[in-house]
Amino acid sequence: MKKFSTAIAFSLITGIGSAWAQPTPPLELADNVPDRHIVVKGDTLWDIAGKFLKSPWRWPEIWQLNKEQIRDPHWIYPGDIVYLDKTADGQPRLRLGRPIGGGANAGGSGSASTNPEVVGTTTKLQPQVRVAKPDREAIGSISPALIEPYLSKPLIVGQNELTRAARIVATQEGRVVLATSDVGYVRGLEDETTTEFQVFRPATPLKDPVSKKVIAYEAQYLGTAKLVRKGDPATVMITSFTQEIGIGDRLLPAESPKLINYVPRPAAKDLEARVVSIYGSVGQGAQTSIITLNAGSSQGLEVGQVVAVWQYGRAINDRTEPNKKKRTVVLPDERNGEAFVFRVFDNISYALVMKAAAPIDVNDRVTAP
């Protein structure tokens, strides 16, 4: 196992946040770590970091670019080369380069950087200026497709906030549920100039798994629809869905989501939270699931923070214990995975599960990573 201690503070690298002023455990490189990776379309910074680190969210600690490059992953394009080496004091670092003389990212983007050129078995380094190319699609911190639908509209609403929103009152041919390309009939469209909509299920209460009190009301995102005929009722066609859509579901005007190039950092050390729900599921969560936490800005959580998810230790019967009264033993909690907080309200947060060794359940414990 390869370990490196690091004294690099997140706030010194990125200029944002103070959470990294706290001591962090030594970095561990991934097993069979490569010395370089050629960026391909579909890569994310998290994916790339996972090739080099056992804790991919700690990539800002060893990503040796300037502050603006760290803040904006759009400096990194398919065809670029991410390679691993060490600083003068033995710390691991990732650096960005591209083959000299062209390559898939001949335009590149950003400021001056050192780039490798492989000639035979020798790697030459040469500084070059990287000029932005607006026609080239850069990579992001995480895949936007996983969270994009959950950024453009509040998921946490007032108890009766959606009561007056446009609603589906019937389906074509009496279908029970609607999916892509199906037609529904809607009443309550006040603005007939709007043609693109997002579909939500009416708000349902979220209960704290500890206190059992209602701490928020959540409107579940179901999909998108477009207006195909005005009137009362108006006619809409479902253009996408994440869950089945039916009578009584609400429509709100669609807005373009504000995508952020998230920079991960750990949640505060004193965080103690629980999983309130697995978004869009009545079962268990897994990698890429969205989970709801019973902590938000009031508890110090911020967008971009990483949390650890723990499975509670189960109670077992120790048959080796001669004293029957002492046979019940509770096993220790086990760290199950990591999640990335991308949406924060007062007392509720939404996080994307980035890693899960086992299914995630409601009431699982959440702490700093």
TrEMBL record:
The keyword Signal applies. CDD domains: LysM. Pfam families: LysM (PF01476). Residues 1-21 form the signal peptide. Residues 35-84 form the LysM domain. Keywords: Signal. This is LysM peptidoglycan-binding domain-containing protein. Residues 99-110 have a biased composition (Gly residues).
